[in-house]
Amino acid sequence: MTTLAADREIESLMSLHPKGFDLSLDRISRLLERLGNPQDHLPPVIHIAGTNGKGSCAAFSRALLEATGRRVHVHTSPHLVNWHERYRLAADGGGRLVEDKVFADAIARVAKANEGQKITVFEILTAVTFLLFSEHPADAVIIEVGLGGRFDATNVISEPAVSVIMPVSLDHESYLGDRVELIAAEKAGIIKGGCPVVIGAQESETALQVLIETAERLDCPAFVYGQDFLAFEENGRMVYQDEDGLMDLSPPRLPGRHQFANAAAAIAAVKAAGFEISHRVADKAMANVTWPGRMQKLPQGRLTELAPKGADIWLDGGHNPGAGVVVAEALAEQEEKNPRPLFLISGMINTKDQSGYFRAFKGLVRHVYTVPVSLSEASVPNDELAIRAVEAGLSAEPVSSVANALMLLRDTWDGPPPRILISGSLYLAGAVLAENGTPPV
């Protein structure tokens, strides 16, 4: 359910200021100075960049810290259903999404401080993050980068407790560059001199080298996946290893083998930030972690009732080829354990490599239903998206909506209960959760 006060403030901002990103820190720095530089008055900050896995790392980091009894602020972006999801304020027993009145008041104060100067809405809302987090007590802060790193509005944190760089791959090429080493250099921009750095599992040796060289040049203690820490599956358990030894843990609640590496990066990051993590705490965190819209089992709701009886429905907002690979691997694991025919319902926006995303599912998916992404002006038309899926070697057809795709599958499929993945865009994931009546809380 939309809470209107903050939405009205944001709609007002959008009518005054340009959409998109400003690849500099001048405007956000000017605004924050007028607010008293709240970014300099925060508890220890875990700052997370990367192409894929940022949100999962933030979720694991939050679960780890809250399992120790600590109070944690969390900023993530984008949101799925409501803007409030971007701001989780610390509370005893676990953080809570910011209350609408508190959120609206912070937006109004930041907008007033800006005095009508040229700025983007994302920069104003980032300033809101720092204002809220400085005014409410907490033991730690987790901040996810919005775009890139070097010029992202969150990159005004001068001394993070730890900077984390999750897997780097091609995405947002028009902003960050068309080679993985260029993108890695942009992500590495959040690394600060002398501050600890955790480098998550990297598929690209070139990207890894850029990140390591940046940490060395800035004289940062660096902890590299595969060298200083790692995680692996053994007998259905997760084994985490670093210089302190081994921890035999419950497997992460988030599905997919890639989540072992994401969880490992979070454990390494929280420890590098100066927090002690016991075996008991880590085990509790693996069992309790949640991250909506990322390989999420779709809760029972209005949409699930339209699907074939007994269908296993998953939702994932991954939208680039790297995300396609890890999601396809997660589904292949499920297929090994519990075979079911797999169908894909997908919507994407035109800034993404659609064929590259679909190629990851070749040989795994029986059929693709392509749908428009109603919440984005950049939605790829569903008939065009079906062509991209066919180019990637998949069987596909355009359908007008997720609801209609589910009903069409229900009415035409006469085999065993299928597994259904709804994916391709965070905008689509948010629309599905809203239509299903199960928004993040």
UniProtKB/TrEMBL annotation:
The keyword Nucleus does not apply. Its cofactor is Mg(2+). GO terms for molecular function: ATP binding; dihydrofolate synthase activity; metal ion binding; tetrahydrofolylpolyglutamate synthase activity. The keyword ATP-binding applies. It is an enzyme of class 6 (ligase). Residues 48-270 form the Mur ligase central domain. Its EC number is 6.3.2.17. Keywords: ATP-binding, Ligase, Magnesium, Metal-binding, Nucleotide-binding. One of its GO terms (biological process) is tetrahydrofolate biosynthetic process. Gene3D superfamilies: Mur ligase, C-terminal domain, Mur-like, catalytic domain. One of its GO terms (cellular component) is cytoplasm. It catalyses: (6S)-5,6,7,8-tetrahydrofolyl-(gamma-L-Glu)(n) + L-glutamate + ATP = (6S)-5,6,7,8-tetrahydrofolyl-(gamma-L-Glu)(n+1) + ADP + phosphate + H(+). It comes from the Bacteria. Belongs to the folylpolyglutamate synthase family. PANTHER family: DIHYDROFOLATE SYNTHETASE-RELATED, FOLYLPOLYGLUTAMATE SYNTHASE-RELATED. This is tetrahydrofolate synthase. It comes from Mesorhizobium delmotii.
